[in-house]
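Hi all, posting the design record for the shared folder.

TITLE: backbone redesign
STEP: 1 of 1
STRUCTURE INPUT:
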């Protein structure tokens, strides 16, 4: 549990003072809120992915929401442990001192802006209903309220997502006790190591399917 001080709660201070907030969490309790944050981040990413894939054209709204909830929870925890491991090892190779637990905490806390984007989802669902996960069509031109909400939500989630990227760099830098530049390098190498095997696997499966 985090020691109570006169400072703002970390869920607020992480937005404007990420390194100081991350150090406060790591020094007091590196596990503080990590599991809930990882779970919520997974759900948020799963919802965004469902929108980008236009799943509303194939599945009912309830099925999509349940799938995002379950898939987001599972995927969020798997990603956090894989990325936590890679960020730890690659960061240590660059001179960092963070442990896997500290890097998972950094990954979780840097996602707070993305998680905050979940707050706009009830508005989006109430406005668009079953069309939330369907392609945007010309009907929005005749529904100014839906168009305003859709564009507003898109702008908010984009801004929060970009700020999460900034916090990713700051929190990893603080966990490893090195510069933001080394943190950027750590993230870039982690992304390459994480994605290249997936791309190779996808190509291999596609090739095998083509030869079958």
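Okay, here is what came back for every position:
SEQUENCE:
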């Amino acid at each position: 549990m985090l020691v109570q001080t006169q400072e703002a709660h970390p869920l607020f201070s992480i937005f404007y003072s990420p390194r100081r907030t991350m150090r406060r969490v790591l020094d007091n309790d590196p596990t503080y809120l990590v599991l809930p944050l990882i779970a919520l981040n997974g759900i948020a990413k799963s919802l965004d992915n469902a929108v980008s894939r236009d799943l509303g054209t194939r599945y009912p709204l309830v099925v999509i929401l349940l799938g995002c909830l379950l898939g987001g929870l599972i995927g969020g925890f798997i990603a956090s442990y894989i990325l936590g491991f890679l960020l730890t090892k690659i960061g240590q190779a660059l001179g960092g001192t963070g442990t896997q637990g500290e890097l998972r905490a950094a990954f979780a806390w840097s996602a707070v802006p993305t998680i905050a984007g979940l707050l706009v989802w009830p508005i989006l669902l109430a406005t668009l209903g079953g069309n939330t996960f369907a392609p945007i069509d010309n009907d929005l031109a005749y529904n100014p309220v839906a168009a305003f909400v859709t564009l507003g939500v898109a702008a908010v989630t984009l801004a929060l997502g970009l700020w999460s990227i900034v916090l990713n760099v700051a929190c990893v830098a603080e966990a490893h006790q090195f510069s933001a530049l080394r943190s950027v390098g750590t993230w870039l190498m982690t992304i390459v190591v994480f994605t290249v095997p997936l791309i190779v696997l996808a190509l291999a499966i596609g090739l095998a399917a083509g030869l079958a």
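COMMENT: Residues 10-205 form one domain.
Let me know if anyone wants the other runs.
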